[in-house]
Amino acid sequence: TGVTMADVNGDGHLDLYVCRSGRVSEARRRNALYLNNRDGTFTERAAAYGLDDPAYSTHATFFDYDRDGDLDLYLLNHPIRRLTRFDVGLVRRQRDPLAGDKLYRNDGDRFTDVSEAAGIIGNPIGFGLSVTASDFDGDGWIDLYVANDYVEDDYFYRNNGDGTFTEAFRQAFANASYSSMGADAADIDNDGRPDLFTLDMLPPDHRRRMLLKGPDDHAMFTRLRGYGYAPQYMRNMLHRNRGDGTFAEIGRLAGVDATDWSWAALLADFDLDGFKDLFVTNGYLRDYTNLDFLNVTLREAYRAAQAEGKKLHAYELVQHMPTSELINYAFRNEGTLRFSDRTRAWGLDEAAYSNGAAYADLDGDGDLDLVVNNINGPAFVYENHAAGRSGRHFLKVRLDGPPGNRFGTGAKVTLTTPDGQTLFQEMMPVRGYQSSVEPVLVFGLGAATSVALEVVWPDGRRERRDGVAADQTVTLAHADAGDATPPPPPPAPPPLFAYLPDGRGLTFTHREDDFIDFEREPLLPYMPSRLGPALARADVNRDGLPDVFVGGAKGQAARLFLQQLDGTFRPANVPALDADVAFEDVAALFFDADGDGDADLYVVSGGYDVPADAPVYQDRLYRNNGFGAFERALDALPPMPVSGGAVAAHDVDGDGDTDLFVGGRVLAGRYPLAPRSYLLLNDGAGRFTDATDRLAPALRTPGMVTAAVWVDLDGDGVKELVLAGEWMPLRVFRTA
């Protein structure tokens, strides 16, 4: 399976650790360690080092997790016994010596399995396809991200700095790829922090998305969440490191979310412009998720075999499976959190069944060449010509580490260009999928001809050099590094916002009902029945303090919170709100409807679970008695049975009272047809009439309105109405 290059015995030469798997005897399955004899030959010594593990191994990575100066080993394994996706509660806490991952500590002349004591999960449902080592949180201790295929969540191990790890995926990530495969960590936005990219199997084109098995439906997704799994989606994920211990997923924003059945991901600066690009390998020999095969070909083959009294063997079934050679992908980092597809422009569009990939400067010209492994075919070797382009400079960095870590695995190198650009890399040769890259760091400098350089070694010692010329190879030695104590950071400015865990009394938890829109309309892009909750703010009791209204979902009463003198909030008793639990509150507005000087409340009703024109889509006006007590004004509004989206107040007719625009959001059962919207004129006493057709017929169906605001755009003293919505541009309406 995977091959790892590392200097295991600390003699300054790369050794090879080879992982093995398969339904074979334990003797044939034991992993192998080939020590470099320094003469072009290798000697197998896995048993002597305690690394002849018989587990079903995918790959391994060597790194110094305990900062004792030598390289330890994380062994990535997988099960061969099929488990249902609902076994999580029973087996997640189990340990399987052949399927669970392992951590081996380097004790000098031998490695010791410390998996359980170190907090490594070793259950039989984690189907590891890649492990990525990086100091994600910047605390000087190397963390791990394990990409698991099939049912199990991915694992994110934070290094505690005491020989143990804490699995913290849910604290750091909002979601993960469903069938996580290859992965890589690198700084894609030049902020000095490693980001993370994981691969999945989502095709980029409509035909293959329809042809191959897609993501689970919403009912299954919800069921999996109920069984304890984290949110997983069938697409590539690009997790941007926020620097606070959490990540933001931006794969679709970046344009790298769909690359088909992908294996290896490599983030590196292939065009030497100073930003790390992305290379992805693609291909699977047999499309065993092909729905035509599963629903037609397979059934016909079974029927034919039964008619002839034969047994259909697995090998025969495989021969019926269709095959699809796929091109690999190359994406150029545009430096704006977006990537552009340069596969064909860079000459990397040859179709094959590719999986493993690695980069190295094979010809020594300063740029990264590519080697790609292919099933049933020769490997691809791509020569990179970026270094020959005018205006593109590079810097290669070799590391001469201490005894036990000669190649400086885990060291961090940061370059600063004259214009202040930060270029950051970590020495971590294991990347992508079952592969190792050259243990040399290649930086693209763009137009910069010199840089400042700083290296931080795994033990914390550091060295800085200024005025380092471009277009050369620099060797940094651990022996030249100085004190491990970093310079004190500048004092951080006080945060603009402070999180209040107790909410100061704003104790409201929004709870949706269990209606699933997709069961009625499978092609919906989202669930229109879940667009709340509404929020509005005003001083409703005239005490000089702003109060807060929070709308409820269908079946949940809205709440009004009154602010107290000490800054806390107290829920008010409003029977009128409790009586209207049948409504879905999607927008709200405080305004003086009846001219008595207090804040009345308008609530827009929405939803999608009942037919259009149902009474529960009627908006509501609640009149304030002047002291924060509200009663619903049943006669204040005309019939408006429309699932709404927005409300905005303005004196449209100039008569001194406040009129309203109410935007319709969605027509229940007929998405994406636009519903009615309304221009409501106030009679001065807080009773409204529909004047849309008379004064503004263009506002009758302006689109699927999500937001509305009155603003004077042209400075003439008259406000225009600006609308935003789905499937529509921003629209501006002037008062005639």
Describe this structure in words.
This protein has 736 residues and is mainly beta. Among the domains are: 393-483, Immunoglobulin-like, CATH 2.60.40; 517-734, 7 Propeller (Methylamine Dehydrogenase, Chain H). Helices cover 10% and strands 34% of the residues. The strands form 15 sheets. It has a four-stranded antiparallel sheet. A four-stranded antiparallel sheet has the order 5-6-7-8. Strand 45 and strand 46 form a beta hairpin. 44% of the residues are buried. The model has no long low-confidence stretch (mean pLDDT 95).
Label the structural class: mainly beta
Biggest β-sheet: count, sense, barrel? 4 strands, antiparallel
* Quantity of strands, as a count: 51
Strand content of the residues, in percent?
25-35%
Distance between the ends: 73 Å
Which architecture of the domain at 517-734 does the CATH hierarchy give at level 2? 7 Propeller
Helix content: 10-25%
The named CATH superfamily of the domain at 517-734: Integrin alpha, N-terminal
CATH topology of the domain at 517-734: Methylamine Dehydrogenase, Chain H
Low-confidence residue ranges: none
CATH top level assignment of the domain at 517-734? Mainly Beta
The gross shape turns out to be globular
Helix segment count?
13
**Radius of gyration over all CA atoms, rounded:** 31 Å
